[in-house]
Structures are given as structure tokens and as C-alpha cells.
Amino acid sequence: MSDDHNKPPSRIDFDDLxxxxxxxxxxxxxxxxxxxxxxxxxxxxxxxxxxxxxxxELELLMLDPAYQxxxxxxxxxxxxxxxxxxxxxxxxxxxxxDLEDRAxxxxxxxxxxxxxxxxxxxxxGEIIPIEIMLTLDIPPDAPTIEEYxxxxxxxxxxxxxxxxxxxxxxxxxxxxNPASKExxxxxxxxxxxxxxxxxxxxxxxxxFNASPGPDxxxxxxxxxxxxxxxx
Length: 231
What we know:
Layout: H1 9-21, H2 40-54, H3 57-61, H4 65-102, E1 104-105, E2 111-114, E3 120-122, E4 127-128, H5 130-133, H6 145-173, H7 181-200, H8 214-220
Helix pairs in contact: 4-6, 4-7, 6-7
């Protein structure tokens, strides 16, 4: 009977390896070496290192079901916020276009919005004197400068939300520096908050006080204090 039957498996492996290193026992060489004579243990380690090199840090984290769920929830929230933002941007752009279309027009075609003091103001902030405003045909629904400023202010806020959404999308999708599961949860909450803010903004038209009509403007004008118009 062979002495190997009386040895523990670990001892047999140890002896076999020593025999291989000494050039004996060729029948058992495949247990420790590949066809190139490289130790199989080294090849296995190299294989695992290769897997890690092939997979990005994000892909490795995605192997965890809990992380994968948080990742999906964050992306769903980002998509929801983006969809709400896109709709709000379109609505606000149409509203601004409507204000500009209904605004009083100067002879050169520029839109003028009604100020509380009866003067006008262009989109770039130029003040139009009262005596010029009196020469213009002011329709009853002429938009006020407050309406126009509010619409522009909302446009800026929406643009800021867009920047926040873009940053969140980049952070979530970074393959080499992925967000932690906790950070993904925070991003989801932030995006849900943005979506609520965008959707919860009241209609601009209903949030403004009614502006005075052209007859009321003309009645309240004190032309004795109006500056002389230089030709």
C-alpha cells in the first residue's frame, strides 16, 4: 500500500509540489502548473486582477443588489426631475413669448412693458418716459414689467435646476468614482425635491396683481412734472 494513503491531503499536496519542483512525478504536474510551467495559483490571482481591471468601480458596486436598487432609484428620480424641467421650460418660454407679443410696441418694434408709475420699460431695462407712453396705443391686457421680470426670473431658476440635474447625472454615472449608496439616496431626495419645486410653482399670471388699464394710467398721470421730450 502506498504511503500516500496514510498522509493528510495537505501533506500530499505539499509533497507533490516539492516533487514537481524537483522534476519528479510528472503525472501530477497539471495540479500545480499550466502548460507553460506557470504555477496555477499565480494564474488564478492574475485572472481575478484582470476581472477587476476590466470592470469599472461602478460595475463592481452594481454587483450588489442593494446598490443596484439605489442606483436605479436615483436615476429614476433624475429622469423625473428632467421631464418636469423640460415641460416647465417649454411652458415658461411660451409664456414669455406671449408677454412680448402682447406688449406695447415702440415705433422701432421694441416691446415695452407697463411700469406701476405709468412709464414703460423695455426688455433690456430702458425706461420709456410718460409723454412717449401717451402716444402709444396701450391695449387693456398690456403686460406689466413685473410679469415680465417674474417670467425671466423663473427662467433663470429653471436653468439652475437644470445645472443641478446635469451634475447629479454625471455623479451617478461616474464609472471610476461612483457615488456611495448613501449618496445615491441623497441624490434621489434632491431630485424629487427639484421635481416638486418645478411642478409646484404657481402659474405666473395668477401670482401677479392686476395691472392698471390704459384709462387708469392716463387718469393718474401728472404731466406737469413730466420732463420735456428732446427731439
